[in-house]
Amino acid sequence: MTRFVAFDVETPNRANDRMSAIGVTVIEDGAIVDTFYSLVNPETNFDLFNTRLTGIDAQTVRDAPTFPQVWTQIEPLMSGGLLTAHNAVFDMNVLKRCLLGYGIEWKPYARYVCTVQMGRRLLPGMRHNLDVLCGYYGIKLDHHHAGSDSRACAEILLRYLEAGADVRPFIRTCSFRKG
Predict the structure, then answer these.
(1) Phi, psi of 146 (to 5 degrees)
(2) Most buried pick, 24, 66, 94, 165, via CB within 10 A?
(3) In a 3-state reduction of DSSP, which class is residue 31?
(4) How many domains does the chain have?
């Protein structure tokens, strides 16, 4: 693999079926080559917990594009490499639920790696929260900002790769089919 697409989403509420922000960071041949960030109007309610965590509320996203509008911009990025996320099961499921909820057909499945799972094997004996790993590696982080979180995930992956890690044992598959 020479192209990775690190992404992070923020959600408006505990349903985790809509996004209020998304960040994408593309790694190609060992370097960050592209980034994308957008607020997303989730067209649903916000929980106070999520607003406090992310700083995003209904007023913040009032004029933001909806997920289908953002998807037209990011689909080429998301289709062009191995998806990567920190605690990837969460981000992959939100992505899946957004695609299915809006009736957007993409591909039947996507392969991905999780930097939390990689870290547990590569750096045993420590916590693998994003902020902890960023502190360990000296990576700048504005936590719970999807753009910063996706970039931090990409930089953590780069540190793993520079240390000789092989992503192949960590590759998983997420189905984007209903059911």
Answers:
(1) -55, -35
(2) 24
(3) strand
(4) 1
pLDDT one-digit tens code per residue, 109-161: 999 999 999 999 999 999 999 999 999 999 999 999 999 999 999 999 999 99
- Helices 88-101, 67-78: inter-axial angle, 10-degree rounding: 120
Which amino acid is present at 49?
F
Q: What CATH number corresponds to the domain at position 31?
A: 3.30.420.10
What pTM does this model have? 0.97
- How far, rounded to the nearest angstrom, does the alpha carbon of residue 11 sit from its chain's CA centroid? 11
The owner of tokens 């753009």 is: 147
Q: Which domain holds residue 70?
A: 3-175
